[in-house]
Task: structure prediction
Amino acid sequence: MSPPVTARRRRARIVVLSGTLLAGALLVGPLVGATDIDLGAVWSDPFDWAGNPAAAIFFMARLPRVLLAALVGGSLALAGATYQSLLRNPLASPYTLGVTAGASLMTFLVIRFLPGSGLAEFTVPGAALAGALATTMLVMVLATRTGGTPPTVLLLAGVTLNFTIGAAVLLVQYFADYTATARMVRWMMGDLEGATYRLLAVLFVASLPVWVLLLRCGRTFNLMSLGLEEAQAHGIDAGRATRRGLLLASWLTGVAVAVAGPVGFVGILVPHAVRLVGGVDYRVVLPGALLGGAGFLVVCDVLARVAIRPVELPIGVLTACLGGPFFLFLLLRRGFARD
Amino acid sequence: MSADASLVASEVTFGYDQPLLREISLRIEPGQCVALIGANGAGKTTLLRILGGLLPPQSGSVLFAGREVGSLSPAERTAALGYLPQRSPRAAGFAVHEIVLMGLYSLLPARGWEGRTEWLAVGRALRRVRVEHLLRRSFATLSGGEQRRVLLARALVAGPAILLLDEPLAALDPGFVLEFTATLAALKAQGVALVVSTHRLSFVEALADAVIVLQRGRVLDHGDPEAVLQPELLNDAYGTDQFTAGGRA
Result:
C-alpha cells in the first residue's frame, strides 16, 4: 500500500502556489492604478519624490496600500479558517460572532460625536478595535453563562449580539447628518486608502504573534473540526481551545477591520479555495489561507483600482461581487452536498 | 505494557440536573474484557466518557496506573486509552487515512509531521479491521459500518493499553461482528484491556470476563457473564418480560 500524498507535501504545494500569487500581486500591485507607472522610472531615482512622480506614487501612495491589503487579507482569511474549524461551520466567517457589529458601532459613535478626531490616524481604528474585542468578550461571557462554548451556543450568542448591536448601529446612523452618514456607509464598504507606514508597522506588530500562534494549531483544529468529543478523546481541552482560538481570530479580525473596515467574503472565500486545492487538513489550510488571503486581497485592490479607472471601486464591493458567484460554484460543484 | 496498567474507578458519581451515574466502582486489569450492558439511558456512554477522561466525575476518581486519567498528558492518554465514540463524526472532507492518523497526533513531536513509521501504523490498523482498501476514500462517503471500522482502526493505531468501545457493533454486518470479536480476542490475548458497551448479549458471552449491568445510573449487578445474564435480571435491566419468555438479543 503506497502512502497517499502527505499533508506535508500538500502544504508545500499550497505555500508555493499562494506564495507565488502573493509575490506576483505585490510586484504588480504598486504599478497599476488610475495612472500606470513604470518600475524603471521608479528606480531611476527612487528617493527624489519631489522630482520623480513615479517614485512618489509608488512609495507614498501605492506600496503602503498594497502592503495593507496583504496584511488585512491574510489576517481575515486566517481568522475565517479558524472560525470554520472551531464553530464546525463551513459558512462561518470572521464576522459571525458580531465583531463587525461591535466595530461598526464604536466607529459610528466616533464619526457621529467626535467628527474632528475621526480623521486622526488611530482614532477610528482604535474605536473599531475596542468595539470588536468588546463584542467578542461579550459573546464568550454570554456563551459561558448559558452553556459553555459549544458551537451552537456561540453561534446563537453571536447572532443575538449581531441583531442587538445592529439596532444600535442603525440608531446612531439615523441621528447622524448627511456627511457623517456618507462616511459611515463608505467605512462599511471597506477602505484601504488610509495606509501609512506607521500604521502598517503597528498592524504588523499586532498581527504577527497571532499568526504564529494560530499557524501552530493545525492538529488541534483538525480534531476540533470533528467535534468536541473527538478533540477531548485525544487529550485536548476543547473549551479552552475554543476560547483561545476564537479570541486570537477575533483579535486578528478586530485589527483588520479597525484599519480597513469590514471587507467581506475574504474569510470565507479564501479558506474554501485553499481546501479545493489542498484538502481540508488545517495544517495545510491555515498557511494557505494566510498567504492566499494576502495575495487575494492585493489582487482585489488592483482590480478595484483599474476596473473603471480613474474611479476606484470600494474594496468590499469587489470582494462581495466575487464571493457570491464563488459560493454558487461551490454549491453546484459535484460532491459538495455529499461531503 | 506495564504490569500496573490497570484502570480503577472508585465511587464515580456524575450528573447534570439529575444524577446519571451514582457511586460506580470498577477495576479493569490488563487482558481483561468488561462489558457494560443496560437499557438506553442507563449511563453506559457517560461511564465510558468518564473512564476515558472526556468528562470529569463530580465525585470519585478514575485512575490509570495509579494516576488520575484527567491529569494524563495527551501523549500519555493516547498510549493508555483508545476510545471509540458511539456516534461517528461528520468529518467533511477528511480522507480515511487522515482520520486514522489523528489517533497518532499526540505522539508526534510538537511541530513534527507524520513519517514512514506513522504510515505503517495506519496501514496496520486499517488491515486489522479489514478496510485498507478504503485508505483514500472520503470518510463522509462511507457506510455507517465502514465508518465504525475506520474509527476502530483509529482507536487501535497507537496500540493503547485499554480500549474503551462505545457500542462498537452497531451497524456492523454479522460477518464482521464475528471477525471483530476475533480481533478483540486477539488484542485481549496480547494484554489489551477492553471496556465495551453493547446491546449484543451473545458478544458479551463470547468475550467478556465480567459484565456490569447498569440501570438508571446504578450498578444493578456485576460479575461473571454466565452467572449474571439470567432472564429475570435481564427483564429487570431492560424493563421487559421477554427474556423469561425465551427471547435473546
